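[step 3/7] fold_predict: job queued, chain A
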Amino acid sequence: MDLKRMCLLGAALLAGAAAEAKKPNFVFFLVDDLGTGDVGCFGSTFHETPNIDALCAQGMKFTQAYSACTVCSPSRAAILTGRAPGRLHLTDWIDGHKKPFAKLAVPDWKMQIDHGLTTLPEALGAGGYDSLFVGKWHLMPNPQPELWPAHTPEKHGFGGNIGGREWGQPKGPGKYFHPFGMPNLAGKPGDFLTDCLTDAALEYLGRAKEKPFLLYMSYYAVHTPVMCKPEYEEYFQRKLDASPKGTYPQSNPKYAGLMKSVDDSVGRIV
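[step 4/7] structure written:
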């Protein structure tokens, strides 16, 4: 091998090693039922979302983007598999609409991701990535609890699961407040769900040092039931009361408080 070829080979090996060392980490934020105008960078003046607005200012803003479906489970399955709901045959939220007198019948559809499909964490895992799922899953066949163990986040490629189960919204005894009734999620009386999910995410980030990682932060918020910390509701109620009627595009202090908790979480994680 001549010197030129050796130099080229050496440069290629070094470039490959550098690329391997520079595998990016991924933090994916998924906010349930978030409306286009709910954040400041898309026009809200009542809600306060400085951390999300900062991400928008630093990154790319999509103004003609659409979710894969208008409801929870198909959108989530589409994100995780890269396939449209029609290809997945998962076209309704689990466990679906039940309208026997509707003019159009709901077609047969699946209530889980097929194991033969490759998910995002599985693809990254093949490349040496660790991963953690935090929050709302809503991809377990319901009402078939005997099948749930086969369709947890871990069974679809995630290295761990905090809070994900068959629920599409908080249904525990305290709903957004402790007790939550969610797997692997600690807390104490008075704790707020979004804060506790964020605590778990931060604990993971604190120890995710050996491998590149995917943190999939899938908020239960801002889905109903609309609940927030009392101090946040009081803050936004005062803001509303201090302004003439019609000043703001939104006027629900509880929803604004729930949105603020999401923004707080994004700021803490970033």
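[step 5/7] annotate
The longest strand covers residues 213-219.
The chain has eight helices and four strands.
exit 0
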